[in-house]
TrEMBL record:
Keywords: Membrane, Transmembrane, Transmembrane helix. It comes from Streptococcus anginosus SK1138. This is Uncharacterized protein. The keyword Transmembrane helix applies. The chain crosses the membrane at residues 6-26, 47-71, 83-103, 110-128, 148-166. It comes from the Bacteria.
Length: 314
C-alpha cells in the first residue's frame, strides 16, 4: 500500500518538476502534445530523446533511495521497492489520458511517443530488476561489464531510431487536417457563422479554434458546472455553445472594422486583445487566422456543402 502511494506521489512530483521547475512543457515537443501555435521543427536533439527516456527511471531511482532511507530510519523493511518501475508506466498512461481529455489525440505522433514510453518503461524495469536490491551501490553503472557495454550500443541505436521517427513525421499536414476537421465541425454546427464573410469569418473561426484548443469540451463541461464567468466554446458569458458563437459573431459585427490594406495583422491582434487581454492569446489568434485564411477554397467548399445540407433539412 505504501509503495503504491509512493509511486503515485512520485508521478505527481515528476509532472510538477517537469512543468514548474524545469519549465518543460510537453506541447513544445511535436510528438508529445503538440506545437500547435509554433513553427514546425522537423528535428529533435539526441539530448531531448535521452531526457524523455530517462526522466521516469531517474525519479524511480530517487524513490528507491527514499525507501531505503525510510527503512533504515525505521530499522525495518516496512516499505517495499520491487514495483517502483511502474512509475514509468503510470507517467505515460497519465500523459496519454491527458492528451485524450484535451482532445489533441490526432495531433500527436503516437509512434514516436510509443517508442519513447516503451524505452522508458523497459529501462526502468531493467534498472529495477538488477539494481533495486537493497544496496544503494548497486544503482551505480559498471562500465567494465560487457553486458553494460552491449546495452549502451543498443541504447544509442534506439535513440537514433526514435530521432528518425520524429523527423519523418509531417506535423504541418497533421495540423492542417486537424484545423480542417474543426472548420467542418463549426460550419456544420453553428449556422450563425454564415452571416460572416472573408476576414470576419476567418477571425471567428480562428478564435473558435484557439478557444476550443485551450478549453476543450471536458474543461468547458466543468466550467459550466462551476458557473465560470467565461464558458462554452467561444469563452464568453453564454448559455450554451450556440449562444456563445452568436455572441462572438455579434461582437465581430460591432467591433471589427475591415481595413483597406491586404495585411490585417494589426486589426486581428487588436480585436483579439479586446476579446482576451493577453499578448500571447492575440499572437495565437493571428497564427491560426493566417493558417485559416490559406484554406479559403476549403472553407468555401465547406460552407457550400453545409449550406446545402441545411436547406435540405428545411
Amino acid at each position: 500500500m505504501f509503495q503504491l502511494l509512493i509511486i503515485v506521489g512520485i508521478v505527481v512530483i515528476e509532472f510538477c518538476v517537469l512543468k514548474n521547475i524545469l519549465s518543460v512543457n510537453v506541447k513544445d515537443y511535436q510528438g508529445f502534445s503538440t506545437r500547435f501555435f509554433s513553427p514546425s521543427n522537423n528535428s529533435i536533439s539526441t539530448g531531448s530523446v535521452i531526457f524523455w527516456i530517462l526522466a521516469s527511471p531517474i525519479f524511480s531511482s530517487l524513490a528507491y533511495i527514499f525507501t531505503l532511507f525510510v527503512n533504515s530510519t525505521l530499522e525495518c523493511n516496512y516499505i517495499q521497492f520491487d514495483m517502483l518501475w511502474l512509475i514509468s508506466v503510470l507517467f505515460w498512461l497519465w500523459f496519454s489520458l491527458l492528451v485524450f481529455v484535451l482532445g489533441r489525440r490526432k495531433l500527436v505522433n503516437w509512434l514516436f511517443v510509443s517508442f519513447i514510453a516503451g524505452s522508458s518503461i523497459l529501462f526502468n524495469w531493467y534498472l529495477s530488476s538488477i539494481s533495486f536490491t537493497g544496496d544503494v551501490k548497486d544503482i551505480l553503472p559498471n562500465a567494465n561489464n560487457t553486458t553494460f557495454q552491449l546495452y549502451l550500443i543498443l541504447g544509442i541505436f534506439l535513440v537514433s531510431t526514435i530521432q528518425i521517427i520524429y523527423e519523418r513525421d509531417d506535423y504541418d499536414l497533421r495540423r492542417t487536417r486537424f484545423i480542417l476537421e474543426k472548420l467542418d465541425l463549426y460550419l456544420s454546427k453553428f449556422k450563425v457563422l454564415f452571416e460572416l464573410e472573408g476576414e470576419e469569418l476567418y477571425l471567428a473561426l480562428a478564435i473558435l479554434i484557439v478557444e476550443d484548443f485551450e478549453r476543450p469540451k471536458f474543461i468547458r463541461y466543468i466550467e459550466n458546472i462551476i458557473k465560470s464567468s467565461t464558458r462554452n466554446i467561444a469563452q464568453n458569458d453564454s448559455r450554451n455553445d450556440n449562444h456563445s458563437v452568436s455572441l462572438l459573431v455579434k461582437e465581430i459585427h460591432d467591433l471589427y472594422i475591415i481595413g483597406e490594406d491586404d495585411y490585417p495583422y494589426q486589426r486581428i491582434r487588436n480585436f483579439a486583445l479586446k476579446y482576451n487581454n493577453s499578448s500571447r492569446y492575440a499572437d495565437d489568434v493571428w497564427k491560426i487566422y493566417d493558417e485559416v485564411s490559406k484554406l479559403d477554397e476549403n472553407i468555401k467548399l465547406l460552407k457550400k456543402t453545409n449550406h446545402n445540407v441545411s436547406e435540405e433539412l428545411i
